Amino acid sequence: MIKVFEDFDITLVGHYQSVLESNDIATFMKNQFGTSGAGELPFIEVIPQLWVLNEADAERAKALIRELYEPESREPPREWTCPDCGTEQEPAFTHCWKCSAARPGQGVVVNDSHP
Ligand SMILES: [Zn+2]
Fold first, then answer.
1. What is the rounded CA–CA span in Å between residue 97 and residue 79?
2. Mean of the per-residue pLDDT values for the chain?
3. Ligand 1: distance of its center to the CA of 90 in Å?
4. What is d(CA 7, CA 13) in angstroms, rounded to the nearest whole number?
5. pTM for the whole thing?
6. Mind listing the pLDDT tens digit for each residue in 72-112?
């Protein structure tokens, strides 16, 4: 057996298990019930783990999990350009360092000044 994933979030591990099963990959979950009365055990003993039974499926299983794990939860920070003055901005900035214009698409409430 090959371990392909582990996480303390049992629902996440269970979700991946069902995805792999639906792709005809035989799986086994370890420590499924490990969180009950686990107080004295080291973490490594109780973290839910997802294993594939056939070594030949391991790479495919890992690829499937990578696809599921990364896209939505970890969107890479992107650089942006100030719409007002055209200055390049660092990904972390929420406002233009030059003219203080708000970054577009951030839901920032801008002062609505009606002349
Ligand atoms: Zn600007």
1. 13
2. 82
3. 12
4. 6
5. 0.53
6. 545 567 889 999 999 999 988 989 999 999 998 754 445 55
Cα(76) to centroid(ligand 1), Å: 22
Residue 50's closest CA among 11, 24, 90?
11
Query: DSSP assignment of the chain, as one string?
Result: -EEEEE-S-HHHHHHHHHHHHHTT--EEEESTTTTTT-TTS-HHHHS-EEEES-GGGHHHHHHHHHHHHSTTT-PPP--EE-TTT--EE-TT-SB-TTT-PBPTTS-PPPP----
Question: How far apart are the CA of 102 and the centre of ligand 1, in A?
Answer: 8
Lowest mean pLDDT among 31-40, 51-60, 81-90: 31-40
